[in-house]
Design brief:
Blueprint lengths: L12 H8 L7 E2 L11 H10 L12 H11 L6 E4 L1 H13 L3 E6 L4 H8 L4 E6 L10 H8 L4 E5 L11 H14 L2 E5 L28 E6 L12 E4 L2 H8 L9 H11 L2 H24 L3 E2 L6 E5 L3 H10 L2 E2 L1 E2 L10 E5 L3 H16 L3
Parallel strand pairs: 1-11, 3-4, 3-5, 5-6, 6-7
Antiparallel strand pairs: 2-8, 7-8, 9-10, 10-13, 12-13
Length: about 375
């Protein structure tokens, strides 16, 4: 069982850099899951353009960005609050709503539990996702367990399992939450990787539901799909009455100028989106073929990372670290152990290096 006091996350190339005494740029990081394309050229150009304005304070209301988000997701600007990544907003929600009883699935993103514990919520129930069911959520059982809770968190698609709950089932869960008076927090950090190019590319999202359901709150992290992890940018979509409440608990200037400008540009970059899906289609096929060849178990994923399980996982993890390749150990997730690893999909060159190295490691195991 995990301990939230050791809230490890992916992307810690800095510790490995110190350990191996090598520059961070020489580490291949499969432990975090940003877009393998990296930051788009258009975003880089926009950042360079706005460097000269860094002597000004950022717009604490994120007006330009909020207007663009409202247009994309067909909501009002009054339904949106931007933040320093979605993690800031998770803590803000708990701080503002002051829940007494909470429900979280297990395994999932550790910051839900940490935020609740930090603000004194000790009555936390865990809904276990079972490996035998490929970590699929039992929708009916989860809805029943929401009764009596003030707040419930769902990450969709979930990390680290990559499990996805359909829009149809999510609407049922949201309706039940409203009936029970339980705030349902839906974290769509990896939802963008599910999008297809259609007339309604955001059709999987629950954002439109906040207009009719005051108990539904949807989180979006834009650091993953647009590879803006170092800038930190996210948003929460919610009933406008809740917007006013959350703003009374929010610190000013948490979203810097470059983050705001970068996301405004990124959201309009259709070529970047098209290239992302083309790359992932090819590389996910290569990923699964390589895992099958190595006889490493993996769980189905429609996003840009995989949860894998192998009795040799700890050995693989440590050997790769020594060769400056970083994976995400899932040993500190509730419901998982050291046999599980989360691995992101990267460029073909990097993916090829990973599987060639893993193959070499496994060939030396008796």
């Amino acid at each position: 069982m995990s301990d939230i006091s050791s809230h490890l996350h992916g992307g810690d190339v800095y510790s490995l850099s110190e350990l191996l005494k090598i520059p961070e740029r020489k580490i291949i990081d499969f432990s975090s899951s940003p877009n393998p394309l990296g930051v788009s050229k258009k975003v880089k150009a926009e950042i360079r353009k706005y460097l000269k304005f860094l002597n000004n304070y950022p717009d604490t209301e994120c007006r330009r960005l909020t207007k663009v988000l409202a247009g994309r997701y067909s909501v009002s600007t009054e339904n949106i609050i931007c933040g320093n990544g979605s993690t800031e907003l998770i803590y803000l929600i708990v701080r503002a709503l002051k829940p007494q009883k909470a429900l979280i699935v297990s395994p999932t993103f550790s910051e839900y539990e940490r935020a609740l514990s930090m603000y004194g919520v000790s009555d936390i129930s865990f809904f276990s996702l079972n490996e035998t069911d490929n970590f699929k959520l039992d929708v009916q059982a989860f809805m029943e367990m929401m009764k009596g809770n003030d707040i419930a968190f769902l990450c969709n698609p979930n990390t680290p399992t990559a499990g996805f709950i359909s829009k149809e089932d999510m609407l049922k869960i949201a309706a039940a939450a409203h009936e029970f008076g339980c705030y349902l927090i839906v974290d769509e950090a990896f939802m963008d990787f599910l999008y297809t190019h259609s007339k309604n590319p955001d059709g999987f999202s629950m954002i439109d539901g906040v207009l009719k359901n005051p108990h539904l709150i949807v989180l979006k992290s834009f650091t993953k799909f647009y590879a803006l992890c170092g800038l930190r940018i996210g948003a929460v979509f919610l009933d406008e009455r809740l917007t006013s409440l959350l703003k009374t608990h929010k610190e000013p200037w948490t979203v810097n100028t470059l983050s705001q400008r970068a996301l405004v540009t990124a959201l309009k970059d259709n070529v970047y989106e098209r290239d992302t899906f083309a790359l992932l289609k090819t590389e996910k096929a290569f990923f699964e073929k390589s895992l099958n060849k190595l006889e490493i178990q993996y769980f189905q994923s429609q996003v840009n990372f995989y949860l894998i399980k192998d009795k040799r996982a700890l050995h693989i993890y440590e050997k790769l670290k020594n060769r400056s390749i970083l994976l995400r150990s899932c040993a500190n997730y509730r419901g998982l152990n050291e046999q599980f690893l989360r691995v992101s999909v990267k460029t073909h060159r990097e993916n090829s290096v990973l599987f060639k190295t893993v193959s070499n490691i496994l060939s030396h195991i008796d």
